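DM from R.C. (forwarded with permission)

"hey, sorry to bug you on a friday — could you get me a structure for this? deadline for the figure draft is monday and I only need the backbone to look sensible"
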Amino acid sequence: MFELQDAFARKFHYLRLSVTDVCNFRCQYCLPDGYRPDGRKSFLSLDEIRHITRAFAAMGTNKVRITGGEPSMRRDFTDIIETVASTPGIRKVATTTNGYRMAERVADWRSAGLDAINVSVDSLDPRMFHQITGQNRFHEVMAGIDAAFTAGFEQVKVNTVLMRGLNDGELGQFLAWIKSNPIQLRFIELMQTGEMDELFERHHVRGAAIKEKLLEAGWQQKVRAHNDGPAEVFWHADYVGEIGLIMPYARDFCASCNRLRVSALGKLHLCLFGEYGVDLRDLLQNEGQQAALQRRLREALADKKATHFLHEGHSGMTPHLASIGG
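My reply, with the result:
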């Protein structure tokens, strides 16, 4: 078996598979004006999702995160989970969601084969949650997290984009929340997108500063597993929950890269922050194309760079900040 490996000896056991661009939230750091539909778009079908997942699994990928947009906007989302989970070689299926449908559907997702779930919660204050996300759904999302535990998830990961002057003063509240709850709270550093430079200047909080505070307070860093996402994870003897920090500006952020991304339109993105995509869709139409599909994936990896170019102002796909919070 040829494993997915680039010129820098990085192996890619983790696929982030977007199944839609549609989202019903209007988060300040992502889609402040809301999603604008394009009638020309046709998102990956269930059969296309099956073909791409099988190709990646045959090349060593064992973890798939189903993302969006908001993936649960797909009517066949549960079928997508089942399709990915039933693929030989796939050992872990995760999703990232804004949580608005979790309360009523998370048990079905669990039954379909979902192993892990990330929920975006940018504030524990309902009014601030509304201000940041553009949706007055805080209590629905929190009920969804409770429903996830009832459905059998042992841990829920919560993504929070840190923003100075908005939610950065809630660290104490967040810590109190995870003291007795099995939640991995993941603070995502706000990034400069090129489209919202003023937002970045006004609200950016350095993840490194949070890390310093954690270490001073006795938190200890965990060792990463081979198919973990980009977060640096910390634990504390006095807490049931954990804290993860996603800091794309940190030195060596890309050194442990193990993730590739396929967009909802069937393009392979070698970097989560990259705009350029390799079209795969013409090779997702039948089983007989698997060898050619794997060959294209192999050839594409030859172009993967050693690092992203965020420090040089190349923001790529970072307007969709939720794309890195896995």
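R.C.: lifesaver. The chain has a mean pLDDT of 87.
me: no worries. DSSP finds nine helices and twelve strands in the chain.
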